[in-house]
Write a structure and sequence with these properties.
Largest sheet: 9 strands, antiparallel
Number of helices: 35
Structural class: alpha+beta
Radius of gyration: 27 Å
Helix content: 40-55%
Number of strands: 18
Length: about 750
Amino acid sequence: MTKTERHSRQVSPHRRLPLCSIRLVVVVLSLALNGGCDNANDTPNSAGIHDSESYVGAGTCAECHPAQMASWRNSHHALAMQPATEETVLGDFDDATFTHNGVTSRFIKRDGQYLVETDGPDGQLAVFPVRYTFGVYPLQQYLLELNDGKIQALSIAWDSRSAESGGQKWFHTYGAEERINSADVLHWTQPSQNWETMCADCHSTALVSDYQFSDDRFITHWAEINVACEACHGPAAEHLRWADSEPSTRSAVDKGFTLSFDERKGALWQADPVTGKPQRTPRLIPTKELNACGGCHSRRAKISALPEPQAELLDAYLPSLIEQPLYFADGQIRDEVYVLGSFLQSKMHQSGVTCSDCHEPHSLELRAPGAAVCLQCHNSERYAAVSHHLHADALEAQQPDCIDCHMPATVYMQNDARNDHSFRIPRPQLTEQFGIPNACNACHSDKSAAWASDALGGHGKLPNDAVTSHWTYKLAAADPATNRGRDLLIEIGSDPAYPVIIRATAIAQTGFGDSAPAQQLIARFTSADAPLIRLAAARALRNSAPSLTAKMAAPLLRDPVKAVRLEAAVALVAVDPILLAPGVNKEVQTAVQEYLDVQALNSERAESHVNVGNVERFRKRPELAQAAYRKALRQNPSFIPAYVNLADLYRELGRESEAEQLLREGLVVLPDEALLNYVLGLALVRQQRISEAVDYLGQAANSAEATPRYALVHVVALNSAGQVEAARRSVQDALRRFGPVPELQQLASELETDGQ
């Protein structure tokens, strides 16, 4: 067991998708959920989608770049996806068995083909062929083919770690206790586990999928089955022509590529003479590697059919911001968010560090083992000293290193430890107040957060940034439902010293009125240099005064970055055209069409149809909106926003009984879903059936996903139903659970006053 494994924290217990689970459960641009494939083979076939002749293949690259090829050949990129052969399959297929929740699966090799006997779509045992291996370490998954041609990721995986580390065995990626049958949204045969939808484009090179909705199938093409040279460098045909040209005629500085990874060239890291901290010369915040790597190493939605490595990230993807439940309240990783979102929070990024400063880009290995990679730049006399890490009495093998304290790992899929890349200072005092993790207690699990705070303070190691002024504290405390929280969000968003992604996160959660100060503030955001700030401003304008939105979002329709234009379209389609300046309505319709084209690109996902439904609602076309929401539910009966948005449409149309029926149908599929219980409770309140509503609102308020708003509405309903004592108990429970939320405090005071 490595130090990283020993100090890893287990991912929070609520259910989540394994694989590349890039779900954005929102009603804005999202990704995929269904399909089968056609022509999904490991030879290029790209007729009508991309020019296969522009991709030359890794074998061609190897002729001139043997050292890079040797480094890449055994990397996780090279082994990301492979045909299932004797050379590539690591698992035990010698008639091995694995039992999970009463289902015994068998792993078989017959006539050179790898097979799995397990429960299929109908819950009955059947035999399925293994088409591909997926990944390599610390686990290897297997892609099985269903009878309808869909390629699905089996949830039983092979632990490829050594036996001494607990590996060399079959295991279930959701854990031994998770009960999953064939009707469960997480079952391996369900859309949520479809290879095409959830992970294909990041495990192969130049992959494009054309989803045929009428047939529920994909036509898929790739240049190479794995993540090869051209996945990062782009198509190399022009580079070959450059290489074959006469040296005297070679004028292209990019050597025939559209992207040159030259941002580390000539960079020096030297100690700042005042602080002693490393400083990059020349000063630069690199973007090329982040754009090329970020699309696959982030939680995001795809907005371009075939993103190119040289493209601005937000022209190809819509990355998620630092919001719960994807991240903890202070920005630490929680769900499977990969690396980009946390790295963009870091001082490393703000100082000019980029991916290849720490990782060799072909082998993907660290440039030095363990803490040595940090000591490339950070002075060992200062940072490897006991005075810094405070563990003089620990055994040598148990001493924490930089990674343990500043990059704590979270374990996903039972054995895959992934490090937080925000490089944050441990702040156990935030744990005391907000219940979020900290690196100290990840090791010292028998001690309290208060003990950790005292230990750091006793050694003068508590951050000297006056905790309450640091952005991590402000972000954790910034509940947008409260006035204090909104003030904090505006404060965060307005401070240019804070990381751009944190500022964008704060701005996006804020709404603005049409006052002069609000106009000045939003004007600064919409004209910011950083695309992520402009995107966040467009998102904030969705929740702002319509007159302000009409005025400030209109220029963003012409933004050079696609994701910003799309967000502006979403904001403006909801605005009454009478508020728009002359000519802007036509621009809105053009931008909305670009937005709808993105939904068509992702039409295998229920989210895309919900997004279309929302646009049609704003266009006052309820029949088309209803059809789009129903389409989403046919595609994925477990997609909660489809129920919620369609029920809200019925409410607008005065069809409350249909809304109620729909929500009850949703609760048959997802009986414990907090949001469905909450929305049904509200529907019953509107029908004056408050006694019935109390039960559903209580289910929502007492769930693990509850919010202060759920609790507030439940308490009001209890009081309205005459259950005054129950209301008083519930509001006190909510205050203990959520802390001093002003609205809850006020309600508690009113209930106490009424009882006197």
